[in-house]
Description:
Blueprint: H1 21-28, E1 36-39, H2 42-49, E2 57-61, E3 65-69, H3 74-83, E4 89-92, H4 95-105, E5 111-115, H5 121-131, E6 136-140, H6 143-148, H7 153-173, H8 183-196, E7 201-202, E8 207-210, E9 231-236, E10 238-240, E11 243-244, E12 247-252, H9 259-278, H10 285-298, E13 310-312, E14 319-323, E15 336-339, E16 342-345, E17 349-352, E18 355-359, E19 364-366
Bound molecules: zinc ion (2 copies).
Amino acid sequence: MDIVAIDIGGMDIVAMDTAGRIPRLQALLPAAGCDGLVISQLSNIRYLTGFTGSAAIVLVTADEAVLVTDGRYDSQSAEELSRARVTARIEVGLPPVQEKVLEEAAIGLRRIGLEAGSVSWARQRHLAADVFVRAELVATDGLVESLRLVKDEGELGAMRTAAAIADAALARVRPQLVAGIAEVEVANTLDFEMRTLGATRSSFETIVASGPNGAKPHARPSRRLLERGELVVMDFGAVFDGYCSDMTRTLCIGEPASAALGRMVEVVRASQAAGLASVRAGVAASEVDSACRTVIAEAGWSDAFVHGTGHGVGLDIHEGPRVGPTSDATLLANSVITVEPGVYLPDHGGVRIEDTVVVTAEGCRPLTTSPKDLMV
Ligand code: ZN
Ligand code: ZN
């Protein structure tokens, strides 16, 4: 088995600016109406501190940050925070000890924010009744996520590598696509190649959907065998250094079996090109959606484009900004988004083409660069 280093274009790998993030979050607290914020969402914790374990809570106040975790992560938390040059107090113990630490760190705080999107009702009640008894708990929405919208050079480097891994994996799998191979086998090979090429894991469950299965945008790979002349939708991504890539290519073994399939591919290709051409810092995300949707509607298939045009990507495979008809986001330079229109016709199959791109002042820079030609 060959482990191949990915060439990321000779660019120096720039360290992430993890240490600057807690101060930027602290600056947001007054406007959010709280003097402390409890961060329990793990990808937010990773973003703020560099900690990659599966259990921790961070309390950020105006003048300090405390990370509590359990004994499994004693040395790991110290190593990771120090590597990220993050200034935070680390306290290790069982949950009652962690809660005691949080309670003491919160003395004097009047309004403590919780991440409304990731704290359960039961958890909120417990924190209010047993841990932060003297403070008022307030719901906050998207504070850390708002910082995560704009990627630093280190994050972009990780995402460039994640995308290059997915590109290289597809290049290896493409020649293996022949009639008679099962969807699940293709998906397994893609996953295997991405890990061989240096991915920590796949960004999500790899989609390989052939023929009629392609008409379901999120089909699960099945034992169905690929056939000549039908379309195969492959949607997959790699995680590198915590950051995801996301790409879809639609392929065909030989010539498409019908004129309708060929036309679907042409329309989606044109739609995606229009979407990519509309991306620029300062543009409304809904405009990118409408650029894609208009092309598909003109072909008479507006009902067959059943999802939004794209989403932000980063530590999570789906994060801000949303790129859809009802999105109120304006694209920012150095946000990373996907552009992924599709057409799904139950009698024919499906087509989706997706790239992960960096938003720039002039337009966008694609991270995923696999060829978009149809036939293998
Ligand atoms: Zn995708
Ligand atoms: Zn996507």
